[in-house]
Structures are given as C-alpha cells and as structure tokens.
Amino acid sequence: MSSERPNAPLPGEVRVDLPKGVTARLDRDRLIVHGPHGEVQRTLPVGALRVTVEGPTVRIALRVSSERKRARSLVNTWERHVANMVQGVTHGFEARMKVVAAHFPMKVAVKDRSVVIENFLGEKYPRTASILPGVEAKVDGEFVVLSGPDIEQVGQSAANIERTTKIRDYDPRVFQDGIYIVDKARPRAAEGA
C-alpha cells in the first residue's frame, strides 16, 4: 500500500484549487474560468503543458518530465496565470490612473469603448484610447479607474491610455501633462472587508 496521498501533486506538477462558485473547463487549447464576476479565457501552450480539470481542481504538468529550471518556471508561471484568473472572476482587478493637467485644463470622458481626452496641451482635436472588452472605465475626479476580471485586459487598457497622452516634441521635465498609472492592476478588495 502506498503512503502517498491520493490527490497529492506529482513532481513537476502543480494544482490550483477553485473556490466555491468558480468553475473551469477546457475547450481545445483554451482554459475558461467562470465565476461571479464574469469569465476569463486564456490560450494554453498545449505543446509544453498538460492541463486537466478535475472537479474543483486544475492540474498543470509538463508533457515531458524535466528538472530543468526553465521547465519548472513554465509550470509555476501558468500556476500564477490560473490563480489570477480565479482571483479575477471572484473579486476582479482594478487599476488607477491620475490625470495631470499643469498647462491646459484637460477634459477626460468615457464614451463607448474608449477614453476621450480633450484639450490635451491645447490641441484642437481630441485623443482617444481604446478600452479592451470586459474592462469598465470611469472618471472619478482627477482619477481614471479601470476594473475587470482579466488582469491583462485591465493592464493593457491602462497602458493604452497612458501611451495616448505621451508627450512628443516638448521637454518632459517642464510639460508633465498626461494620464499616468499610479496603481497597477491589483485585486479588488473583497466586498464587506
């Protein structure tokens, strides 16, 4: 009789336990995690990893056993990706950006799936930054708050806005106008906490 636990992960394998109310499924090369705050999908490197969903557990293992550091880091990276997916569908992620308008008063608004910046450095035409699907944006005084279940979508939307207000042809030490990320995409606090 074996002394090992029946559900213990094998060497080179990690497992992520899903909390109550969160489900995961595989669709070819995509892992789909669904929870109270939405759904997050991620394409898996199926040539390198073997991912299985067994009830409330997602198991990630290498296709070929290896003790190499790069192989272990790939498994650990995907363990973190799945943990972020679970965090996103249970609580969500939030990024905060600050609007800095030192020289010209800037008007920032959310319209459709984009953020519109008017009068940036006195320009006649507005600049627009796209917001990726699944991300909600709102302007709260001098802050722009982005939230959503996918950490990569929230972070990329924040980067799109910051890049849209990048200053060219002016001395950045003097003209510090723009919209800057002050809090990167972080898990939202649990409701009632």
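(the above was protein one; protein two follows)
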Amino acid sequence: MQYAELVFRWMHIVAGVIWIGHLYFFNFVNANFAPTMDGETKKKVVPQLMPRALYMFRWGAAWTWVTGLVMLFLVYYHGYGGSNLVDMATATEKPGAMVWLPAFLGLFVGFLVYDLLFKALAKQHNVAVGLWGVVAIGYGLTLLEVFHFSQRAAYVHVGSLFGTAMAANVWMRIWPAQRRIITAIKEGRAPEAADPALAGLRSKHNTYMSVPLLLLMLLPDQIGKVADLPFYGVLPGILVVGFGATWWIYGKAKSVQGF
C-alpha cells in the first residue's frame, strides 16, 4: 500500500501542477492579454491557443481529482488502521464506513451548495463568498466535533471540498462555456455575454480557492505544528490570508508589462 500511495501521490501532484499552472496562466496572464487583441487577431489566436490550453487544463483537473480520491481511500479511509482519519486517543475502535462516508458524500453535497449559493446570490457576490467560507469551516468543524476526525484529516477534507468544487467548476461550468465561446469566435460571431461572464467568474473562484487548498492539502501536518491553535481559529485565518494573497497577485498581474 505504501508503494501505491507513493505512486498516486506523485501522480496527484504532477496533475495538480498541470491544472493549477494553467489556471494561473488563464487568470494572471491571459486575462490581461486577451482584451488587447483586436477581432482579427482573436480569430487567429483563440481557436489555436485555447483548445490546447483548455485540454491540458480540464484533464489536469480530472486526474488531480481522481488521484485525490484514491489518496483519500489509501491514506484515510482504509489505510493505516484509521489512525490518520480519527484521533486515536479518543477512538474506541477502527473507524468504519459510517465515519468516513458522510465526509466523502459531503464533498459532492458541498459543490451543490456552492453552485446554488452563487446562483441565488449572483447580485450579492460578496455575501455568497462569505457564506461559502462559513460552509467550508462548518464542514471541517463537523468532521472534528461530530465524527472525531484528526485535525490533519479535517484540514485535508476542507481542501478536498475546495478541490471537488473546483474540478466540478471546470467540467460543468467553465469548459462548456469556453467551448461555446471558441465556436462563436471560429464562426465570426460574438459569444453570448453570459458565457464569458460565467467562465471568468468560476475561474476566478477556482483561483481564490486554490491558494488555501494548496496549504491544506500538501502541508496539513505542518499547519498544526506551526500554529498550535485550534482548528476553528486556524482555518478562518488560512482563508483570509489565502484570499488576500490571491487578491494581491491579481492586482500585481494587471500592472506587469514585461521585463
């Protein structure tokens, strides 16, 4: 199992680099370059560049998510006697499906909540962002307090909640909209206004979620060692700092002109 964990962890990280690398290209580079192109240039560049980039982007997302699910089962749900999943100091027996299954299903319910939240509060976007943060914190606290997850497992599952929402965004919202945009440009038509708006907004959401996700997923043990604070105090701080750093990078990217 340790060999399997090594292989899938390696695959997970490589696929994640491909996915997040393209996500940052779209948001920090292409988003500032695309508006400078005239109509004729767009007709030449977009049909050649975007399908290639979007192919790597969406399949990077798919493989990151699939290998991440495999890792959840290997490391938390069925591996190591449950010692990574729950606090063994308080657990009376090896955790079974009734412990990890609600957490697993919560990843899918989480995207549904996220999707409905931003549709219902489209005109109160900042409120929706705040509520989504509350949902993520509440999900983690529920795992800790109700199912007695370890802090490491709780951090990883909040990261998985973000990752699942991000992957679903790619395949269910961003890619279909981008496909319609590319088709319209190829045919010399203006894309429907709703498509660039939807793809751009969900891509921006993914960018903001990606920064805390990387810390939560890759360094969950280090968070506890460095912070030495309760989960309900650390996680909101991670979200605030992560979102703030992303906002700063967006501003920096707009001002970059070259060398």
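Reviewer note on protein two: Residues 2-83+92-255 form one domain.
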